Amino acid sequence: NSSYANEKGEKMWKQTSEVxxxxxxxxxxxxxxxxxxxxxxxxxxxxTCKGSKNGRVS
Length: 58
What we know:
The chain has no helices and five strands. It is mainly β. It has one domain. It has a three-stranded antiparallel sheet, with no helix packed on it.
């Protein structure tokens, strides 16, 4: 696992294990399910794609 700061400066964790979903982002890439470990959303799961810069599916 590695940490990084998002655009708001919140510390986030990136998990090394990801679950690939059978859904596609607006950019055409497959989405993955990741877990947020921010102070505001600990343990929250959400879908994103590897091309996402803001952690959201477009």
